[in-house]
Amino acid sequence: MSALSLFLPLAVDEPRHGQDLDEGRAESHMRGTEAAESGKADIADILETSVDPEGVGLLEGVIELNHDETPGMFVENFDGVEIEISSDPLEDIVMRNEEGSEVRVTLPVTDQSQISSSSGIAQIENEDDVVFIPQIMESGDLRVLVVMESADAPSRLEYGFSSGNGGRIVPQDDGGFLVLDAEDNETASIDPPWAFDALGQSVPTRFEFEGEKVFQLVDIASVQPDAFPVVADPVVRARHFYYKVIDIRRQRAQPNYDQRIGGCIIGIGAGSCSVKRGLSAYRTIQTEVGISRGAVAARLGVESGSQVNVSVSCTSQTYKTNKADIHYNVYAVGDFYTYRVEKWKRYTVGARTKHTKVSTSPTKRAFSPSPELFKCKVN
Questions:
Q1: pLDDT digits (tens, 9 = 90+) for 97-106
Q2: 181 and 279 share a domain?
Q3: Domain region containing 21
């Protein structure tokens, strides 16, 4: 299967937030450089002195993890999302939100990897000069920092992202991607990745997608020998959205002339024709902003299945003479719905629950055919 590559516009020589931030990042990474020169990077020092692309320290807004005290590392954060990090590094990291949706993250570790915790920092060490640091953020997000200690580290890392009940990966134009469940509801979003060397310089990185596999590619070949370690990350944001279907108008028992379900032909000469049999009509439901077809159907009060069997019995009028074929068509009859979909996010601040509208869809339509009604008409 051919790979779909999404490149990020990260130029290593382009300032991201002004010269002051670039200088501050370079200074903050100096201790990491010194550690690299000494032969082994100190993870605590790297995290303490490094910042993300927005200039925020990599230990800010992070919940401390004490592996020895909590063998299962089961944590409930401040935003209604539970994140479970197992003591076995081969086990998936599991994120669950208040709505019960689940996202699983599989790290590119081996059976030789070891997990430990020190100063509230969990770290998983591989044998290939790579250290993974899973971080649970107070915002409800999961961040997995990747420390590449030398040029011998792999430049292509395979991750697994899946919903608890199946689903799929949907790449986004900005270089990130969405994780959808089996009903195409968004359960998580993954930000575009970033990477910096020990001098604070941006290192080109991107996600690459092969089917349902996700690879992070980091161009460590472009890193100078004295600029290791390189720190990279994907950020996983579990979603706890809900949707409102705003009913605008309903039209009952109306013919749908866009849905011809059968018919007959009156040939040249004279006569009539009849249609007396079961035909199939189709329920159409438009979706938007991440809501599933089934969720829209439930809110409109209709079935979600596509096919509806219609028992048809009709006969055309009798024509005494006709010089060309006459088409006698059967059309589905049912209820039309016009609506909009609103996407809302629920989050917790202290003891208060807040609701924010994220987006509103354009006007959408649905049609639910009746199994008993139909319209026969000469065209």
A1: 655 678 888 8
A2: no
A3: 4-239
